[in-house]
Amino acid sequence: MAVISRPSGKVFALKDNKSLFPYLLLAPGLLWLFMFFILPIANLAQMSTKTNSGETGQFEQTYRFANFIDSFMDASGQFARSFLYATLATLIALAIAYPLAYAIAFKSGKWKNVLLVLVIAPFFVSFLLRTIAWKQILGEEGPVTAILRTLHIISPQTTLTSSAFAVVTGLAYNFLPFMTLPIYASLERIDPRTLEASGDLYANGFTTFRKVTLPLSMPGVVAGTLLTFIPAAGDYINANILGNPNTKMLGNVIEARFFKIVDYPTAAALSFTLMAAILILVTFYIRKAGTEELV
Amino acid sequence: MAVDASTSAKGDLILKNLTKTYGEFNAVDDLSLVIPKGSFFALLGPSGCGKTTTLRMIAGLEEPTSGTISVGTTDITDMKPYKRPVNTVFQNYALFPHLSIFENIAFGLRRRGVSDADVKAQVDKVLNLVELPQLAERKPNQLSGGQQQRIAVARAIVNRPALLLLDEPLGALDLKLRRQMQIELKWIQTEIGITFVHVTHDQEEAMTMADTIAVMNNGKIEQMGSPEDLYDSPRTSFVANFLGQSNLIPGTITGNDGDNLIIELFGNKVSVPKKRSSAHGTSVLVGIRPEKFRVAAEGKGATGNVLTGGVVSDVSYIGVSTQYQVEMPWGKELIVFEQNDDDEDFLRKSEKVTLSWEPVFSFVLDGSENASSGSH
Question: Which domain holds residue B287?
């Protein structure tokens, strides 16, 4: 008298499929991450402890961890310079981007969207071309040199191109949108009534900025500085195009070791050291900035 | 502490010929008003009537096109908001999301340079007043709507302003909580004795809390008075319809009898006390609140003013009362609320009825008024 039939195998199969579904959705992303992040990183890690086997481009695994120390000692100057330039560029970008984002968020009225498009517009031109353009802007015939010379801020002999100044300027310029957009986004999210409330509670314009606007925009500032500092610290194009042999950054060293000297192990070791240094700095920075709302 | 109006100005709030225009549009139109010190004053009106603009001008968040605002003898018209003896409870509260509840409330005190010990004492005191001392270290987003509302009030009153402005403070709360907060706000106001100016579009809220209500429409004050005054003796059809419901029946004054006017309504002679009339000519609207009507089957005894020949067109039972729609011989429907306080049978649809009411429970408006203005 089996009136009630047992659940067929199909039901179970369906259930299993259901629990697999999220993983199937994740699969392309995971595959991508594996192919283009995990594998290269593992490869790089493997490479970083190899030594040259005599022939150019041939390396054997010797677990030589001294590669890390040797390469770091060789490039410590460029290391320090990378972080100095990246810090300066980040500060300059912040000084320009904050007022810009503030103006777009609070003062631009109907021009808001136009201004936002203008912030993004440089992305339509290649990074390389934009950097080369700065050679012209800062060049002998360019407006910046002419103005600074007329104002006697620099001597008639001084040139601006092929200098640390040009490299930092280029870095600050190239990463400006990455600074502006997160700050804009966090300013835009502020309820204007909280600013009115601050005025209502005896805070003048400056105090309102210091006590309400700035703290509420900190998540944007933190995100923007990270998005500027991290790529700037690893950049080599700006130093390549706008610098001179004395303004080489770590990126230039790594590039040279990979492509010119063909010393893959130390290039890989330097890449890891840079990554670790950035991670440590960023961790400290986020701890200090103390923004629970960051993520 | 700086000697400015935030500490020295006390007294009545006086608005004189206050006007705010946006292009061609008069948001607030030549408004003059005195709000006595210590009162609970409500500005009531539909959205777009200019009540919030008026409030924002008092707070200093909008600049008047013309006219003056003063507190006592101090003219505050051109004063920056942060110098005014005024604090605001904003719609949706506008608490500072990055500060703890304690620091939110302490914000105004700290800006005025109050010492840390005094800040602590005063913040604790208002936290107790709003009965939320346990929330001092929380962040605003960890609080419920009702709690945020009370913190917003605490943040404003801790500064002991001459004037507390409340901009639709209960709009975001559900009905039950709103009722509770109405009573609580009224209690707080009585407790601390600060003048409250409360902007709302909710007539029940205004009636529950305010001593004095000003009904606003199109940037002007239609009528001002106590809740009873406005409800029993509205002077315009807008007030009659916006505060509760009214049946407005056109008629003609045909004479008078001592203290009463005799008015003819489609053949029925009724009388209304003269003091309840704001009519200029003989053409009038007679107003009767739905709950003032008595309704009885045709032929049964009816006293006072009587309207005959009605036919019940709709009946709805709503617990405390039964609502009838009665179609009158002149084609208009009247609304009648009958309390369910006896065991008489309900009147049925299409039954013939007689409506009656005591003369004292009606009012007279000028005949030039638009009978449907201000209807919900």
Answer: 246-366
The C-alpha atoms of residue A68 and residue A146 are separated, in whole angstroms, by: 46
At B62, list the tokens: 């909008």
Q: In a structure prediction context, what are the per-residue pLDDT tens digits for chain B, which is 376 residues long?
A: 343 444 445 789 999 999 999 988 989 999 999 999 999 999 999 988 999 999 999 999 999 999 999 998 889 999 998 889 899 999 889 999 999 999 999 999 999 999 999 999 999 999 998 889 999 999 999 999 889 988 999 999 999 888 999 998 888 788 888 888 888 888 889 888 889 999 999 988 899 899 999 999 999 999 999 999 999 999 999 999 999 899 999 999 998 888 899 999 998 899 999 888 888 888 999 999 999 998 888 877 778 899 988 999 999 988 888 999 999 999 899 999 988 877 666 788 888 999 999 999 999 999 888 878 877 6
Of A191, A204, A216, the CB nearest to B94: A191
Q: Cα–Cα distance between A181 and A113 in angstroms, integer?
A: 12
Which residues have CB under 8 Å from A253's CB, separation 6+? A74, A75, A78, A270
Q: What contacts A235, CB < 8 A, 6 or more positions away? A: A86, A171, A174, A249, A251
Whether residue B241 lies inside any domain: the answer is no
Q: Which helix (H) or strand (E) holds B208?
A: helix B203-209
Task: Count the domains in chain A.
Answer: 1
The reply to whether residue A197 touches residue B61, judged by beta carbons under 8 angstroms, is: no
The rounded distance, in Å, linking the Cα atoms of A5 and B247 is 69
Helix (H) or strand (E) holding B6: helix B5-8
In angstroms, the separation between the Cα of residue A202 and the nearest Cα of chain B is: 4
Residue from the list B87, B90, B155 with its beta carbon closest to the beta carbon of A193: B90
Q: What is the pTM of this model?
A: 0.79
Q: Which residues of A touch B159 (CB under 8 A)?
A: 201-202
Q: Give the bridge partners for B287, in sequence order.
A: B248, B363
Residue B239 lies in a domain: no
Task: Take residue A50 and report the two structure tokens written for it.
Answer: 């190899």
Is A86 within a domain?
A: yes
Does residue A91 sit within a domain? yes
Same domain, yes or no: B61 and B129: yes
B contact test, residue of A198, A201, A294 with most B CBs within 10 A: A201
**Contact criterion met (CB < 8 Å) for A200 and B81:** yes
| Distance of alpha carbon B11 from alpha carbon B163, whole angstroms | 9
Q: Which residue of B has its CA nearest to A217?
A: B98
The string over A235-257, giving b where at least 16 C-beta atoms fall within 10 Å of a residue's C-beta and e elsewhere, is bbbbbbbbbeeebbbbbbbbbbb
Tell me, rounded to whole angstroms, the distance of Cα A3 from its chain centroid: 67
In this structure, are strands B195-200 and B163-167 parallel, antiparallel, or unpaired? parallel
User: Is A280 within the bounds of a domain?
Assistant: yes
Residue A68 lies in a domain: no
* Cross-chain residue pair A211–B107, CB shorter than 8 Å: yes
Residue A65, CA distances (Å) to A68, A266, B56 in order: 6, 10, 69
Residues of chain B in contact with residue A196, where contact means CB-CB under 8 angstroms, are: 59, 61, 81, 88, 90, 94
With H, G, I as helix, E, B as strand and everything else as coil, classify residue B317: strand
Q: Domain range spanning residue A240? A: 76-106+125-289
Distances, alpha carbon B14 to alpha carbons B74, B75, B262, in Å? 10, 9, 41
Domain CATH for A194: 1.10.3720.10
